[in-house]
Every structure is written in C-alpha cells, then in structure tokens.
Design brief:
Structural class: alpha+beta
Order of helices and strands: HEHEHHEHEHHHH
Number of strands: 4
Number of domains: 2
Distance between the termini: 28 Å
Strand order of the largest sheet: 2-3-1-4
Length: about 290
C-alpha cells in the first residue's frame, strides 16, 4: 500500500516538475525569438532600404574618362554601398528582354543613355540626405538626370518608424506576460508545498533554511527550461540559415550569443526571485490562513 502511494507521489511530483519546465520553456523560447527578431529587425530594414536604386544618367557627350572618374568617386563616397555601370547597349538589351522585342529595329537608333545604378547605404535613405546626394550628382555638368522613387523612400521610412514603435510596445507587453507566467508557475509549485513550509516553521526551522531547498529546486528547473529554450533557439537559427541564407541571420554571432545568454539568465533569475517571494508569502501567513 505504501509502495503504491510512494509511486503515486513520485508521479505527481514529476508531473508538477514537467509542467513547470514546459511552461517556462515555452515562455523563454518566445522571449528568445522576440529578442532575435529585434536584433535582426534593423538589418532587415537596412537590407530593404539598400535595395532602393538611384540611377544617374549621363549625357551622350560624356566620354569614358568622365564615367571612369565618376566610378572612382562612387568607390570612395561614404554614402555608396555599391554601384554598377550600365552602358546604353546593356540597357537596350535589358529592355528588349523585358518587352520581348527589339525596339531599336523600328526606332533606328538607341535612345537610351549610359548610367550608373547606385545602392546607397541605409543611413542615407531618407529624403533630406537623398536630396543632398541628388544635388551633388546634378552638379556634374555631364549628368543628364538622376532618378529614384521618392515616394517609396518616404513610405519606407514612415513604415519602418511605425513598425519599430509597435515592436517596442509589443516587446514590453510580451516581456510582462513572460514574467507573470513564470511567476505563476513558481507560485503554483510552492502552493502545493505550503503545509510543508508551515510545518517546518512550526518545529523551529529558520526562514532561510526553509527557503533554500525550494529556491535551489526552482533554479534547477529554471536552468533546465532555459537550456532547452536555448537549444530550440539554436535549432531555429540553423534552420533559418540553411533555408534562407540571404537573410544572413547568423552574421552577428556576438548579439546572438547575448540573446541566448539573456534567455539563460532570465530563466534562472526569475525562478529565484519568484520562488523567494512565494515562499516568503507562506512563511508570513498565519496557520489559519493556509486553509
């Protein structure tokens, strides 16, 4: 009889531990995903900005030395990420591939101009900076025109600012929910031992002596949940890197390591704090209040 009761108690204890670890694992994993998204959000927005092309067209009178000097200027310009020189012959071929027929056969000449397709660095993709760059290029008397999508530049910056604001708000809400969920899991775990806590106190055990085993147990559970969350996050990162290499999600290992270490620290620290205050609550309760 006693043997079956002990088995029942062990199963009940293991079930309690499993539920605590599972709930903490899910919360920490979601927090880690949020952290990874935040550190990569700027990179993703920068990549999107840097895909916007500014095209500088040159007059037909521009010689190779003029375009060569301009190419050298772009190489040393602090606001240029990359540039590509497109001859009017290459532009004509691209147009032919797009429209499906050779437009020069009925025009009799190539009306296109030599140009540079320029990708600016993300920090310069806003209307004030891009207008200064446009004015700088137009100052070259051999430049015929400077073309870029002004409306797209404005929309990108406005939407990124809005998304960043909402992301901070959502991050704060999710962080608060995570703290409350972990705290609730720890409190429920301690609640099931409230009579043991009060019994130990009644026979003369000090508060620190009573708290110590509960805190160490919670810290171990928090550590296990955090390690599982870190492993799951690493697996997620590897999956994304293998299937979407263009995102470059693992290009900054320092920040990724900081997020993973943060998940580990949060799991241990919140477990310790929640258990401390939960046990303190029952230690300060009168015996009659336990019922």
């Amino acid at each position: 009889m006693s043997s079956s009761f002990e088995k029942f108690q062990k199963r009940r204890l293991l079930s309690s531990y499993f539920s605590v670890v599972l709930s903490m694992f899910l919360v920490l994993f979601l927090l880690g995903i949020l952290g990874l998204f935040i550190i990569n959000s700027k990179k993703l927005s920068d990549d999107f900005k840097e895909n916007i092309v500014m095209t500088v067209f040159f007059k037909n009178e521009a010689t190779d030395s003029v375009t060569g000097a301009f190419a050298q200027e772009l190489k040393v310009a602090k606001f240029v990420k990359s540039s590509e020189y497109v001859t009017k012959e290459q532009a004509a071929q691209q147009h032919t591939e797009v429209i499906g027929e050779d437009f020069m056969t009925f025009l009799g000449a190539n009306p296109l101009q030599n140009s540079f397709d320029i990708h600016l660095k993300a920090d310069y993709i806003d209307l004030p900076n891009i207008r200064k760059i446009e004015s700088h290029f137009r100052a070259n008397e051999m430049v015929a025109d400077v073309v870029y999508d002004k409306q797209l530049v404005s929309l990108v910056n406005d939407n990124i600012n809005k998304v960043s604001m909402w992301m901070l708000i959502i991050s704060g809400i999710l962080a608060l929910i995570a703290i409350l969920l972990i705290n609730s899991s720890m409190r429920l775990s301690i609640y099931s031992n409230r009579f043991i806590i009060k019994t130990m106190q009644m026979v003369g055990a000090t508060k620190s002596f009573i708290r110590k085993p509960f805190i160490w147990r919670s810290v171990r559970l928090g550590f296990v949940a955090a390690v599982l969350a870190v492993l799951a996050l690493i697996g997620t990162l590897v999956y994304i890197e293998n299937n979407f290499p263009n995102l470059g999600i693992m290009n900054d290992p320092t920040l990724i390591a900081a997020v993973l270490a943060g998940v580990l620290a949060v799991g241990i620290l919140l477990s310790w704090i929640s258990t401390f205050f939960a046990t303190q609550r029952y230690l300060n309760l009168r015996t009659d209040d336990l019922y």
